[in-house]
């Protein structure tokens, strides 16, 4: 039986209304379906640090895993060098993706290739009316700018081992990312040294605003001043897509403790970290990807791996190796 055209368009409208990409809504509204068993995929990073390479070729610092878990999600580590069909299969089982920090080539590394595959899948899924969020931290942030701009616009914006307040832009208060922040917490974020910076490269505000693709894709939520005086973009969120980037490190505020590093640990610093974890996992709750086989799900999760103590050889406390 053919559906009358009017009914069909009503049905499509209703489906878009219920499941559509409504990036504006922070948490799923009443009556909207939610996925309360989200899984965040974290792409493993190539080990470049000589002190750590005896443990494995790729790693995920435990602080990123804890950050995601603290928002109420489970984590699935994703290995590099898999085939596109393998990544497509994984994509259908996860509800969000985290690109972590590190130090590899953003165009030619195994990491960059895998990240690009997931980025494309996420863009396509969101275009098709699904909701699939991505978060990039530090190098993950830089990677998002390269993927969106389709060129590397990074330059020296060194801010190494320094905690700063964010210079929030006019767009920050109405952003999705900071919607759950109280006025007090937003004030602390812009006045207290509670965002940890550990980077040599970044994108200047000038380079960002000069690139049409970036400008159309992301809103700039904050900037900061680098050691060389350059003003760099420190926080951004997708205008249309649920993609988010921070040049700083929310996870260190609660999960890294090396006394030689300026990791902010005040109550407000911890609140910023936990509020962002809650925010991002809520985004992932709007995705309905899932494993078909519970055995496969069980075997894919991070719980199958034991983190290694690396507090004496790195700035991390613990790390997973693959
Ligand atoms: C990925 O494959 C390349 C080429 O075979 C190899 O050189 C590299 O070590 C692999 N990387 C990882 C992380 O396994
Ligand atoms: C914040 O950090 C800056 C630069 O590192 C420092 O000059 C300033 O005193 C710090 N502010 C507070 C309140 O700790
Ligand atoms: C914020 O911007 C002002 C004006 O450009 C600048 O003087 C200040 O250093 C910036 N603060 C930070 C923490 O980057
Ligand atoms: C970046 O700038 C800083 C501060 O001006 C400088 O110390 C550093 O050597 C520069 N790094 C690179 C990679 O050019
Ligand atoms: C770091 O600690 C681990 C576990 O306690 C120990 O096995 C290792 O030898 C230590 N490494 C260094 C370089 O001290």
TrEMBL record:
Catalytic site positions: 138 (nucleophile), 249, 249 (proton donor)
Any one Gene Ontology BP term: tetrahydrofolylpolyglutamate metabolic process
Major subcellular location class: secreted
Domain of life where this protein originates: Eukaryota
Any single Gene Ontology cellular-component annotation: vacuole
Organism: Conger conger
Enzyme class: hydrolase
Catalytic activity: (6S)-5,6,7,8-tetrahydrofolyl-(gamma-L-Glu)(n) + (n-1) H2O = (6S)-5,6,7,8-tetrahydrofolate + (n-1) L-glutamate
The protein, known as: folate gamma-glutamyl hydrolase
